[in-house]
Structures are given as C-alpha cells and as structure tokens.
Design goal:
The chain is of the alpha/beta class. The protein has one domain (about 5-115): Macrophage Migration Inhibitory Factor (2-Layer Sandwich), CATH 3.30.429. The protein is about 30% helix and about 25% strand. The protein has helices spanning about 15-30, 80-100; strands at about 5-10, 40-45, 70-75, 105-110. The protein has a four-stranded mixed β-sheet with strand order 2-1-3-4, covered by helices on one side. Strand 1, helix 1 (about 15-30) and strand 2 form a beta-alpha-beta unit.
Length: about 130
C-alpha cells in the first residue's frame, strides 16, 4: 500500500517520468513484496528554484538540475537489506533507461502502520478486528 511521490524538474521529459514511475513500481513488487496493482503515485514537476539541494553536495554526492526526489510511504517492517536493494534497483533502472546519473536519484522511505491508511469511503480497511 505504498504512496509514492516523485518530484522533478518541470523540464524533465515525459519519458523520464514514465521510467521513474515504472522503476519504483517494479522495485516495490520485485524487491519489497508489494502486491501487484498497488500503485498510487503523485508526480509533481517543479520550477528550477523549487527543488532546493546543497550546491556544494552532501555525503559525497554532487547533484544536478536533473535531481529526482522520490518519497515512498509504506507499511514498515522491511529489513535493511530489502531497503538497500530497493534503493539500488530504482537508481540502476532510472540510470539505465533514462540516463539520469545515480547521484541524482534521491529516495526517502517513510514507514507507517497498517491502520494508518484509508483507501476510500472514510474507512480504515486494515483496522485491527
């Protein structure tokens, strides 16, 4: 039940958005064991001055205007190994298919509980019984 937010430069080609979206979804299914068809994503394009990052770099990374920020909110409990493979698969796929530098694929995970989600009707579908 992840919710994915993808933020990128407004000048990014539509193909880059499609590739980023597919890369995240593929990694969710193949690495993180998310059910097929559980694809909720919000893509936001930004003016160049609306994505702010350290021009001097951070933790050895040097970013460019091609920076893609991906935030995934999902139910917690996955191992560090799964998360590492998840990050790597996404960065590799976007790099391979969209020629975006791996340094420019920035990912954040937000863990939540199952009961923190409503999929409609104002109901808590995964509420404890």
């Amino acid at each position: 039940m992840p919710l994915v937010r993808i933020d990128l430069n407004k000048n990014a080609p539509a193909e880059r958005i499609r590739i980023a979206s597919e890369a995240v979804y593929k990694a969710m299914i193949e690495v993180a064991n998310v059910p097929v068809h559980d694809k909720f994503q919000v893509v936001t394009r930004h003016e160049p001055d609306e994505i702010i990052y350290p021009q001097e770099g951070y933790l050895g990374m040097q970013y460019s205007p091609d920076l893609i920020i991906i935030q995934v909110t999902w139910v917690g409990g996955r191992s560090v190994d799964v998360k590492k493979r998840f990050f790597r698969n996404i960065a590799d796929e976007i790099n391979d298919r969209a020629q975006v530098r791996k340094e420019d694929v920035w990912i954040s995970l937000v863990d939540s509980d199952r009961e923190d989600w409503s999929f409609g009707n104002g109901e808590m579908q995964y509420a404890p019984k």
